[in-house]
Amino acid sequence: MTIRVLLVDDQEMVRAALRVVIDRREDLCVVGEAGDGQAAIEAAANLRPDVVVMDVRMPGMTGVEATRRIMAEWPHPGSPPRVLVLTTFDLDEYVHSALRAGASGFMLKNSLPDELANAIRVVAAGEAMLAPSVTHRLISAFAALPKGLVGAPPATRANARAGADVDAKAKTGADANAGGDAGGSAAREATGDSGPLDKLTERELHVLILVARGLSNAQIAEALDVTQANVKSRVNRILTRLGLENRVQAAILAHEAGLLASE
Predict the structure, then answer these.
(1) Could you tell me which residue ranges the Response regulatory domain spans (predicted)?
(2) Contact criterion met (CB below 8 Å) for 21 and 118
(3) I need a labelling partner for 177 at 20 to 30 A (CA). Which of 22, 32, 54, 258 fits?
């Protein structure tokens, strides 16, 4: 299946370079371009791409606002396209704003061509992708917010660390299964009985921990000795039960809840 991509950037030269990078991949195809936020909204509605590669700073409407409107005003049945924000600026304010607007990923323009292509594939598959240089700062920033503001359940670091230590010992499929149950139990003890994480099963808690560590569906499937389809189903169920939109929000919740030890 070919992933259809819409390019949004106010610089024609940048769009041309991105088109070359993307179109040379057999599974990726650029179906259109836009030079500003308003044009991006219209092109997305008309072309219905799978992924929108969105610049942030553009004249008129910003990429963040265009992303918000694409997500909120999608005129067709089904879900709107995934948005991968691509920018020169490695600034936290852009990351936070883009994720709040509904973006599924954030990459820098100095990323390698293969990294960009992989990010498009990951986002198209329904997963989240953040540039490595911003991931830890993003998690740390949200973890530093007051618990009442984030809405995370209460947790104790000591018990959460115990759960993470058990999970870290899972090397083989069988060990991963056993570690998942034990890690989930410890995580459940840490979160108490009244938080949103209490809606999850033991195995779902374990999957959430792996998601928060940045593992892809393929890596989680290998760790748990299950199929990728099984993992995707579990992740979707986790997001639904917790009322979250994407894996980034799930990772933030897991870190704020204390499911992982401080890194």
Answers:
(1) 4-124
(2) no
(3) 258
What's the CA gap between 172 and 169, in Å, rounded? Answer: 9
Distance, CA of 191 to CA of 185 (rounded, Å)? 10
pLDDT tens, residue by residue, 89-117: 767 677 778 877 888 888 888 888 998 99
**CATH assignment of 147-256, among 1.10.1790.10, 1.50.10.10, 1.10.10.10, 2.60.40.3550:** 1.10.10.10
Three-state DSSP at 82 gives strand
pLDDT digits (tens, 9 = 90+) for 19-68: 999 999 999 999 999 999 999 999 999 999 999 999 998 988 999 999 99
CA distance 183 to 171: 14
**CA-closest candidate to residue 66, choices 93, 37, 97, 87:** 37
Domain range annotation of the chain? 3-143, 147-256
Adjacency order of strands within the sheet including 105-108: 28-34, 3-8, 51-54, 82-87, 105-108, 129-130
For residue 159, what are the contacts with CB-CB under 8 A and spacing of at least 6? 186, 187, 189, 190, 258
CA distances to 66, 85, 136 from 97, rounded to whole Å, are 12, 11, 17
